[in-house]
Amino acid sequence: MMITTSDGIRLHVRSVGSGAPIIFVHEFSGDVRSWDAQIDFFSRHYRCTAYCARGYPPSDVPTDLQAYDQVRAAEDLADVVRAVADRSVHIVGLSMGGFAALHFAIRHRRLARSLVLAGVGYGAKPQQQLQYAAAMRNEADRAQAVGMATFARELAGSGYAQCLRAKNEAGWRRFADELTEHSVTGMALTLRGVLAARPSLWHLEAELRDLKVPTLVVAGDEDVPCLEPGLFLKSTLPDAALCVMPRAGHLLNLEEPAHFNAIVFSFLTAVEHGRWSEWRGRADALGASQGGEQ
């Protein structure tokens, strides 16, 4: 189905299953199909929704750069939540989708039941911002210069997709084929308006420390740009845990779908039963009970 955002853009939305609602938010090179293995599994227990971000057909592809930014990405997610759910929702976001989920929760915390932030960290450190922004603008220029077919081939052949290729050649080819169906205009504007312009996670520290939403941060140990940001999110968000998946890269849900699903299912089950916050370790209490011994 299509829903219309608060600024008049139509988004393609897919919902299936019944139960507590989960919204899946895709990364830059993905779309609604990226979550098929998760929706197949979680729809047995939850009402699952995934959508194509603006700029990703069959969602609308606005041609004005002003239609793309990190705030708008968060508001699009809020519009999807309001369209498909009558209560707070679990959000599972990968990379660009994880950033959108985090900004959504900061702006609409009452709508967020929990957050899974996977592969969040590219360009997130303050000292990386200028270089990262320039790189994203260069990528946008490259995409528009060579066209979608060539740009898709280059993206699929780049380092962040190689763990997927090594583990699942057929899955990687499917990922690469789906990339060719994207809009080069939408991807270029997303690079310029969202990825190149989003704020550093470290500049959001005050808002993050005040975000008391159950959160699971997930990173692959081969996805180096996300490891330090993952630790930062773990130490800054009040109710967060960090899971590092071994021998995994950036496309976690595609590389290791069964493992990823099991990790997220355990987290959501704990949240749904009110146990997640109870499991948090209390080093100060432990030290007091042991007389401060190490």
Describe this structure in words.
With 294 residues, the protein is an alpha/beta fold. The chain has a domain at 2-123 and 200-278: Alpha/Beta hydrolase fold, catalytic domain (Rossmann fold). The chain is built from 13 helices and eight strands. It has helices spanning 36-42, 70-84, 96-107, 129-146, 148-157, 162-167, 169-179, 184-195, 205-209, 227-236, 252-255, 257-272, 283-289, and strands at 2-4, 10-16, 21-25, 47-51, 89-94, 112-118, 215-220, 240-245. It has an eight-stranded mixed beta sheet, with helices on both faces. Helix 10 (227-236) links the parallel strand 7 and strand 8 (240-245). The longest helix has 18 residues, at 129-146. It is globular and about 55 Å long. The model is unreliable at 284-294 (pLDDT under 50).
Give the secondary structure arrangement, pairings included.
Blueprint: E1 2-4, E2 10-16, E3 21-25, H1 36-42, E4 47-51, H2 70-84, E5 89-94, H3 96-107, E6 112-118, H4 129-146, H5 148-157, H6 162-167, H7 169-179, H8 184-195, H9 205-209, E7 215-220, H10 227-236, E8 240-245, H11 252-255, H12 257-272, H13 283-289
Parallel strand pairs: 3-4, 3-5, 5-6, 6-7, 7-8
Antiparallel strand pairs: 1-2, 2-4
